[in-house]
Amino acid sequence: MSGSKPEFLCFTGHRAFTQRLVLATLTGRPVHISKIRSSSPTNPGLAPHEVSFLRLLEAVTNGSVIDVSYSGTTITYQPGLITGTTPGAGASLATDAIEHVVPANCTRSVTYFLLPLALLAPFSKAHMNVRFTGPGVITSATSATTGDLSIDTFRTAVLPLYGLFGIPPARIELRVLSRSCPGPGGRGGGGVVEMRFASQVRLPKTLHLNRRPGRIRRIRGVAYCTGVSASHNSRMITAARGVLNQLVTDVHVAAQYDPAPLVADKGSTQKKKIGIGFGLSLVAESSADGVLYSADEVAPPQGGVVPEDIGTRCAYQLLEVIAQGGCVTGAAAPTVLTLMAMGSEDVGRLRLGREVVAREEIIGLARDLKQFGASSWGIRDAGDDEGAGDLIISVKGTGVGNVGRKVA
Question: Which pLDDT tens digit goes with each residue over 85-95?
Fold first, then answer.
């Protein structure tokens, strides 16, 4: 072996933190990230959810080296092999899963961890079984500032898209053992979620999703509440149906009620209820296979919002997402585009709305993929009357594939 040091890709800031670490892990390229909230006078460096994600990344890989500076504003990451859940390597014998404890001061939904974890799971050497526990697990959506999806939207609008790449969704199991909403100040929740990802592949299939999106044929959803009256669910559903039934007749929203989780106070044996709240997740299914649109709305932790407002807002938000056009929403587009770039060395095509392509996250993803060795995207107009503002994104796969399977 050569004694030369690996060449690091350099980034600055905390934007796209998980995205860059996921790309580094998939491609095997080490990264150096500096100036992480270095200008913040009160909370410089890594946030609690980012530290927690680093620990999760260390648990599902073998040989990863993570160095964080004393101030937390600089990190170097040398990725290892994605091993998943292997016996004797941190997995619990009782549950056959890696137990990841989320700290109480976490302000992000559990989907902040699940989205990147699901991107790594198809390229794992073994099954990826992870259980999220602890006082910081939030299963609902979070505020507009973070924009995290709820666990229901992740299950019904993101996981089914893996089937388009030859990754069977039937072998992906997501269990919500305890629900929770953001606690006081948006911190903590106390939920329990378990993901079992048993669909490992050598290479994702090339995707061609450039057809017309079609028309909405039905709308499904979940209204959830924890620690409040179960009537909140019916009030949200009635308000949402009042908007949607004028446009689509096939609307069905399930109601889910859970007691608020009990979490022990720090430094005492007494437990208190946190994660109290309510929210709504809606998913619209198109007549074209594989086309899904989703919307999330949750009551703020400080309260002051009635269930009817949540239902109406979520319904109108869903209509706005549908009006943006394309075959994939802005929330799911980074997942789909990353899988396209990691697939076989062929050109895949994806139809997206102009507003989705213009989002900061999508432009940043294109730049990051380019830095990690992927080809530039080709962009052209869809060229049909339906969805006149849509664009066709052409992505050439890098053929990186599953290194663990290659070794095996």
Answer: 876 556 665 56
